[in-house]
Amino acid sequence: EQVLSEDERRNTLQKLVTEARISVQDQEEYIQQFFSQYSLMKNQLLDVSDFMPDGLPKDEFVTLSKKFDGWKRRNEKIDFDDMLTECYDVLSQDEKVRKAWQDRFDYILVDEFQDVNRAQYACLQMLAAPKNNLFVVGDDDQSIYKFRGANIYNILNFEHHFPDATVIKLEQNYRSTQNILDAANAVIANNQGRKEKRLWTDNGAGDKITFEQLDTA
Length: 217
Hints:
Layout: H1 6-19, H2 27-43, H3 58-74, H4 80-93, H5 95-104, E1 108-110, H6 118-128, E2 134-136, H7 153-156, H8 158-161, H9 178-188
Helix pairs in contact: 4-6
């Protein structure tokens, strides 16, 4: 199997940490934090020298990243982050391959567009060109995956990148009552970096909202 499983990734890094003589208090937590930052770096298409990891010393992160990348090359392995960055590299560097895939798809649909990261968006832009028949669905007020590399400005600046795009706001809600939507509108109005929208419904005002604070375990 060429694609590393999560267990293989963890076991490999564990060996590399020992090999690099890095002393950690909680190895499982350390490995989890490393891969969180490693994936973030990859998804942002950044070189290890230009990336500032959160929660890990820079020198240790650089050392382990280079060791991990080297181990994958020697063993002809890739992980899920590589599947995206290798795709970007091929599309950006090989015009023949890029054109073949561009010709294959006349239309491209992307759901949950607010969660797209830099590498994914770059690949989408290349695949959609030159026809630019790109249909995206997303909600900037639901962007919650910044820690995974999701970039809210992909959706906020979409019309700038695709000036011929038509924007359709889906403001009518079919599930909730207006009292609930009014509360939701009041909350999301405080979000920074968002497209203006106001949710409404034909379902009527409905019951008043009640608030209760409950004890936790």
